């Protein structure tokens, strides 16, 4: 059997950015810095009743929050940004602020790929100009796929704050259970890889002309 290579899963937004199964009953541990490179800081911590890690990411990038809304609304493009995303497709667009999508993430052999259906919601606070993006897995929206393990739990929150000089700060936290029988040590070892790679790609992707100058009624702003 060959040695397993590092991997991650979709999150956005997520993004597919790592794993953590949460059944929090006691105060969690302090955050531990896993990676600090290119202005992207990835932290992790163990929750007391969990075998896996919770992940938190901080970074800054050039652009406006509306560019992130434009990208996350463009589900077919996720594979170009999200680490190890094999495919993503829109299931249902409820409104400008809510959509459902399906995603499959690639894992190295002999592990099976993972998939899930996600509900994504945007919320904007005009006074603070903070954009929040919430994602969570939804059950029974897509039938089980042969040879693919369904992710039983996924929950993530993005908080995006505008900064001077056409920049923004992103604070992202997520918890997930990848399902199946993946070794805990392997999941935790690679948990910081996906967030870093995905946000590094996102910095470049949101500068695509298709995401510039977009307007959204719920934000009442354009980039």
The CATH architecture would be: 2-Layer Sandwich
Radius of gyration: 17 Å
Low-confidence stretches: 1-25
Helix content: 10-25%
Shape: globular
| Strand residue percentage | 35-45%
As for the CATH topology, it is Alpha-D-Glucose-1,6-Bisphosphate, Chain A, domain 4
List the helices and strands and how they pair.
Layout: E1 32-37, E2 40-46, E3 53-62, H1 65-72, E4 85-95, E5 98-105, E6 114-125, E7 130-137, E8 149-150, E9 153-163, E10 167-177, H2 184-189, H3 193-205, E11 215-216, E12 221-222
Parallel strand pairs: 6-8
Antiparallel strand pairs: 1-2, 2-3, 3-10, 4-5, 5-6, 6-7, 7-9, 9-10, 11-12
List keywords for this structure.
10-stranded mixed β-sheet, 12 strands, disordered N terminus, mainly beta, Alpha-D-Glucose-1,6-Bisphosphate, Chain A, domain 4
